[in-house]
Every structure is written in C-alpha cells, then in structure tokens.
Design brief:
The chain has 269 residues and is an alpha+beta fold. The protein is built from ten helices and eleven strands. 38% of the residues lie in helices and 17% in strands. Helix 4 packs across helix 6 (151-158) and helix 4 (108-119) crosses helix 7. It is elongated.
C-alpha cells in the first residue's frame, strides 16, 4: 500500500513498534496471534494490515492509518504485555479470546487448537517448560469479556481445550475421534508408567493398548525417525498397536483412523 510520509510501514521490521508508539495502540487479534506463534487457518495467516486495539476509555492518537486495522474496545491493563522495544501486545489469553471474534463457527476447531497450544507445556532443549497460559486464565478472560463478539464460540471451544496436544493435527485427531462417538483418548500417554524410560505417545487408549501418533514434518529427520523406530519397538514388545497418522489422513478428516480405532476398541471390550 501507499504510506503517508513519516508514518511507519507496518510491514517493515520496526514498523509495528513504531506504530504502537505513534498511535498508543496495542498489537492484537491476528497480529498478536502471529507474535505469540498461534496456529491460524490459511485465510487469516496473512493479515491485510497490522491489528491494533485502542482502549475505548483512553485518549489515543491517530488510528486511521494506512495498513492499520483498528479495534476500539475495553482493554484492561492486565490483558496487555509491555515489551522492551516499546511495543505492546495483548496477552496470549486475551489474544485467544479476540480470535474467537474473527473465526467463523465452522472454524471452532482452530480455536480449540489455539487453546491447546497455549495450555500445553512446550518442549525446550532441557525438557518441558511451563505453559504460556492455563485453562483457568482463558476462562477468566472469557468471563471478563461477556457481551463481546465471539463469546459463544470461545465458550464452546474452551469446553474442549485439553492439556497435552503438541500440534494442531493432534487436536484435530482427538476431535475427530470424539465426534465419531468414540471415547476421548488420553494425551501424552506413557506406554509403561512404571518405567522412567518409557516412551510417550501422542494419543492413546491404555485399556486397548492402542497408540496414536501423528507424523508431521518434524518426523522426517533421521534422528526423529530413529526415535520413532525405538518407540514403536517398545510398544510392540508390550503388545501395543501403533497407528501412525499423516497429513493425508488429516486432509481426509481422519476417517481411516476413526475406522481402525473403532474396530480395535470393539475387539477389546
């Protein structure tokens, strides 16, 4: 787009921080979701402009700038993160709620996946870290934003947020199983809880000795393939069956996996 002389370009490396200082706004909605690393449906993954929220009770500077999508709502101070570079961005929990107002009802699974993403203990080089947000924090933000667009979608999504999904496909797989009328699987299942060295599978049904693994792009490296082979051998030694899912299964709605799980559970009742 064409930018007014002296107005920072929101697409430039330092443009967002400069616009925040210029306008008094807070990076929010899709722009904040990208900053927090939240997964988004393809139609929202490349926003047309920088989303800035302005507290409706506060005085602000210019908001009608090229490349800025403005929102004017009540924004409590504890829903805002102050960054060292002068930029301000909505907290992860508030960003999750704001996304509910931008997603369509049929995209609720993405909001569930975003919730799962925030409440999971993420992997770090030294092991699992603390989650970015908790279910109770998401619930608190939802309660304080009553009457806002997206409340119903957020409430429906929050009821299905679970701790333990490490990727959106794992969330989508769990939801596909539940919506097919199958029992909800456990997440991050230790095959042998008594063994400190036991591998952990993405999803599982312990009573049926059934492990479900989603093989995404991260499983293509030689190191990960070796770990996967060791995990599968461990499962086999303990008479667990491993079902491995791929992007093709996700694209097909996980119908193949649902059928296999249904038959396996029927045999082990």
């Amino acid at each position: 787009g064409v930018h007014t002389a002296g107005i920072p370009d929101p697409c430039a490396p330092d443009g967002a921080a400069a616009l925040v200082r210029l306008t008094g706004g807070v990076v929010s909605h899709v722009s904040a979701a990208l900053w927090h690393g939240l997964p988004l449906p393809p139609r929202l993954a490349r926003p047309a402009g920088l989303h800035l929220t302005f507290d409706r009770s506060a005085r602000t500077h210019r908001t009608d700038l090229d490349g800025v999508v403005s929102h004017r709502v009540r924004l409590p101070s504890d829903h805002v993160l102050e960054l060292p570079d002068g930029q301000r961005v909505t907290t992860a929990a508030r960003t999750w709620f704001d996304l509910a107002g931008m997603l369509r009802p049929h995209e609720v699974d993405w909001l569930i996946a975003d919730g799962d993403h925030l409440v999971r203990p993420p992997w770090t080089p030294t092991g699992r870290a603390d989650p970015v947000a908790t279910v109770s924090e998401l619930s608190e933000v939802l309660a304080r934003c009553r009457g806002r667009p997206g409340v119903r979608l957020a409430r429906a999504a929050l009821a299905e947020v679970r701790v333990g999904a490490d990727s959106p496909p794992e969330t989508f797989l769990r939801l596909a199983l539940i919506r097919a009328g199958l029992p909800e699987p456990e997440l991050q299942v230790a095959v042998d809880p008594a063994d400190p060295a036991s591998p952990v599978v993405d999803l599982g049904y312990r009573g049926a000795r059934l492990a479900l693994q989603y093989d995404g792009a991260g499983h293509r490296t030689a190191q990960q393939q070796a770990r996967d082979a060791r995990r599968d051998a461990y499962c086999l030694e303990r008479e667990w069956t491993t079902l491995r899912c791929t992007w093709e299964d996700q694209r097909a709605g996980f119908g193949r996996i649902v059928g296999l799980v249904r038959r396996r559970l029927a045999r082990t009742r």
